[in-house]
Amino acid sequence: MSERFLVTGGAGYVGSHLVLALLDRGDEVVVIDNLRTGHRAALPAGVRLVVGDAGDPALLDAVLGEGGWSAAFHFASLSLVGESMREPYRYLLENAATGIRLIEACVRHGVRRFVLSSTANLFDQADRDLIDETTPIVPGSPYGESKHMVERALLWADRIHGLRSACLRYFNAAGADPQGRIGEDHDPETHLIPLAIDAALGRIPPLNVFGDDYPTPDGTCVRDYIHVADLADAHLRVLDVLTTRSATYNLGNGRGHSVREVIDTVGRIAGRPVPHVVAGRRAGDPATLVAGSARMRAETGWTPRHASLDDIVATAHAWRLAHPGGYGAN
Ligand code: UDP
């Protein structure tokens, strides 16, 4: 039977891939997105878009008051680590306030399940190779701290009101819909894979490699890239868990790739080398972030279907090749 879901930030990169997965299985979706970074064109026909802030109490009352919600998925957020190091209070205030207002409205309108888009930026200076859910939380930036604040608010919403929640800490979301319907389009783009692709295609100046003196095998930062369609699938799978309890999961492939490896892979798939220069380190970047996702696999049966870096880069490359200007203006 078809269910009804609220997706805040559903016009954004990861959110839009979840919206597509929900529609593909026949569910009804309502998106709240202020379109500051999201794209109307990322939403397929059949989705109702309410343009506004996910932390606007009047708007939330109007939308959530319609009732019949199976769950709320919360993506709407400022999400750039580097920017948050320059504008810490904006990140702390806006992300925490939006999340807490949404949680409060969900409780008031009887929504029983809540899924939070969280981050690996909770784990600066991890004390182990695979970062799992028992790794101590040390946010690496005000962005990570703001997500942690919302995670904590969810803990209290569960204890006091019984709102069941899943906090999904993504490592590096990457790739695009394997059918090519939607992809990644940020303005400005700051993420490694789309920038490396555009540099290879000659659309932008050479890529800056942010530091080659890290304590990693080739000196560049190591990240765990996880396909955005596998992240969308993870959101669907946690819904079953949430019928009985709250949960927290770290989501990645459990395998790290250095910036140089990404550059080599993009060059091979694009058929042209990625022009690049070594620049200084970027503030807030830990040397290595690799997920331990055994809990998610064991408890939900989740198995990433696009785990290889080749697959991730190939889907991203296909979308950017077909959409030189991204989605265009809203
Ligand atoms: N990176 C880089 N040059 C760029 C963008 C990113 O060297 O132009 C590096 C960055 O320092 C990090 C990795 O690529 O080690 C992934 O960065 P991204 O911004 O894609 O994701 P993040 O790890 O910040 O979530």
Automatic annotation (TrEMBL):
Keywords: Carbohydrate metabolism, Isomerase, NAD
Protein name per its UniProtKB record: UDP-glucose 4-epimerase
Organism: Acidisphaera rubrifaciens HS-AP3
Cited InterPro entries: Epimerase_deHydtase (IPR001509), NAD(P)-bd_dom_sf (IPR036291), UDP_G4E (IPR005886)
Pfam annotation, one family: Epimerase
Requisite cofactors: NAD(+)
GO molecular function, one term: UDP-glucose 4-epimerase activity
Reaction(s) the record says it catalyses: UDP-alpha-D-glucose = UDP-alpha-D-galactose
Domain of life (superkingdom): Bacteria
CDD domains documented for this protein: UDP_G4E_1_SDR_e
Enzyme Commission (EC) number: 5.1.3.2
SUPFAM superfamilies named in the record: NAD(P)-binding Rossmann-fold domains (SSF51735)
Family: Belongs to the NAD(P)-dependent epimerase/dehydratase family.
Residue intervals of the NAD-dependent epimerase/dehydratase domain: 6-252
Pathway assigned in UniProt: Carbohydrate metabolism; galactose metabolism
GO biological process: galactose catabolic process via UDP-galactose, Leloir pathway
Subunit structure: Homodimer.
